[in-house]
Amino acid sequence: AQKITQTQPGMFVQEKEAVTLDCTYDTSDQSYGLFWYKQPSSGEMIFLIYQGSYDEQNATEGRYSLNFQKARKSANLVISASQLGDSAMYFCAMRGPHSGGYNKLIFGAGTRLAVHP
Amino acid sequence: DVKVTQSSRYLVKRTGEKVFLECVQDMDHENMFWYRQDPGLGLRLIYFSYDVKMKEKGDIPEGYSVSREKKERFSLILESASTNQTSMYLCASSLSLASYNSPLHFGNGTRLTVT
Q: Which of A51, A69, B4, B14 could serve as A34's disulfide partner, Cβ 3.0–4.6 Å?
């Protein structure tokens, strides 16, 4: 069965420091995609970053990078130089042939990040 | 930018009422989705649609139905609302079904309370 596990219900970080949010996944697929979303208190889910299972380089988008370790089935999100506006809920998600087909994005339970001044 | 708009931010309904949650996207996406979000459970797929008048059940379709009469609009219907349907409902759209790198674009969510 396809599954996403986020083991950190809550994290906090000092402003301007880096933080890593953990994500492990379970899949028998060889080809799949991994996503991270941010959900601020306003409720909107904001797409942050994508990593394909065959991508050799770790994905980066501005201050966000994805530490992809395929053998360990982990896809941790690294936020560099944290800002107060980074305080939000963060979700890891996966999409692949056996996650209900191309259509289904499977989500983890989320990690709530608090950035302290 | 993709814009996904959910008609209501907050909704309070009584048990047994028929409830309509509306979602509109402005990017001509073929695919639209309804998710339910509950604390500790993440997001769970209720229904999705890959074309007008086409729909597929997700993980938790019981107690819900959907309607897609126009490409830009996808409605979630609670036939007879119950208290266990109190939740945050998120609508999303995406361009491609065939590509794993196609992200979902979400609306702001509707927080539904059934009393």
A: A51
B-chain residue closest to A51, CA distance:
B101
**Is there a contact between B50 and A42 if contact means CB atoms under 8 Å apart?**
no
**Separation CA B63–CA B80 (nearest Å):** 7
Question: How distant, in Å, are the alpha carbons of A22, A76, A79, B11, B16 from that of B6?
Answer: 31, 31, 29, 12, 22
Chain A residue with minimal CA distance to B95?
Answer: A103
* Residue A73 vs residues A25, A59, A68, B71: alpha-carbon distances, Å: 6, 15, 8, 37
Per-residue confidence of chain A (117 residues) as pLDDT tens digits? 778 999 999 999 999 999 999 999 998 888 889 999 999 998 889 999 999 999 989 999 999 999 999 999 999 999 999 999 999 999 999 987 766 655 678 899 999 999 999
* Chain B residue at shortest CA distance from A43: B108
Interface contact flag, B42 A35, Cβ < 8 Å: no
Give 10-residue mean pLDDT values along chain B (115 residues).
87 97 93 91 90 90 96 96 97 78 88 97
Q: What is the Cα–Cα distance from A112 to A99, expressed in whole angstroms?
A: 25
Under an 8 A CB cutoff, do A95 and B40 touch?
no
A107 interaction partners in chain B (CB closer than 8 Å): 42-44
